[in-house]
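Figure S4 source data
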Amino acid sequence: MSTGPADSSWQFVTNHTQVLLCIARDPDIRVRDIADAVGVTLGSAQRIIADLVDAGYVQRERQGRRNRYLINRDAPMLRHAAQEGHDIGGLLDLLRLAESD
C-alpha cells in the first residue's frame, strides 16, 4: 500500500506545468536546464515547449543565440471544461503560493 507521494505512480503536476513553472521562474532558462529540472529528455522538453508555444501559453523570442520565453498570463486554460474561466496566470500564482509554504 502506498504511504506517501514518493510511492505514487502518477504526478500531481504535469510535465507541461512543470516546464511552464521553470519558464516563469527564469524566462532566459536553457532547454537543457528545463529538461534537467523536470526530469525529462532534451527532446521531450523541446516538444513540451513547442506545445506551449503552439497553444499560445508561451512566446519564444530569439535573443542572439539564446531564447527568451514570455508567458501569456491571460491565456485561458481551455484543456478541460472544469478549467473554464481560469487563466494561466492564476495557475502560476497558485503554484507559487504552494512553493512559498
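Figure S5 source data
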Amino acid sequence: MTPEPEAVLEAVLFAAAEPIPLGRLAELLEMAPAVARGLVEAYAARLEQDVRRGVRLVEVAGGYRLETRPDLAPWVHQLERPDRKLRLSRAALECLAIVAYRQPVTRAEIEAVRGVQSDGVLRGLEEHGLVEEAGRKEAPGRPALYRTTPRFLDLFALKSLGELPRPEAPPAGAAERTSATG
C-alpha cells in the first residue's frame, strides 16, 4: 500500500534537521516540482487554518520546514535546554551583520568597519556554521572572502538575504564626531 503524498511530505519535513528545497521534496515525493509545490501550499494552508495544530509549514533558507506556531512559544520554551542555545557575543553579531550586508567580504574589510581585529570572532562564526569561505579576492595576497550560509538564513528565519532589514543611517553628525575623536 502506497502512503498518501501528504503523509510522506509531513514525515520528511518532521524528520529533517534543515529546511528541504522544493526540488528535493519533489524527488522524495516522486512528483514534478510544480505538483510538489501545489501539495506544499495546500498542506501549509491546512496547517494555518486548523487551530488544533501546533505546527506550521514555513519557507526559509531556500527550503521548507515545520516549526511550532509562534503563539505556542511559552510552552515550547519550557522544553529548551539552555546549553543548546546558540549565544552570540555583541562582537560576533556585529561581525555577522557586516558579512551579511557586504558579502562577499574579506577579514580586512570587516576589520576596517569594526576597527578591531576580527579573526577570532570570524573563526567562531565559521565553527557555528553561520559564515563560510566564498573563494579568494583578486587582490594582492588573495585574501579569503566570506559569506553567510544557509544556516544563517535558517537561524534568523529568512527566505533570502533580500529579507534583511535595511540598515539604518548613522545619526547626523556621527561621522564628524568619529573623525574628530579618532
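Residues 177-182 have pLDDT under 50 and may be disordered. Residues 6 and 22 are 14 Å apart (CA to CA).
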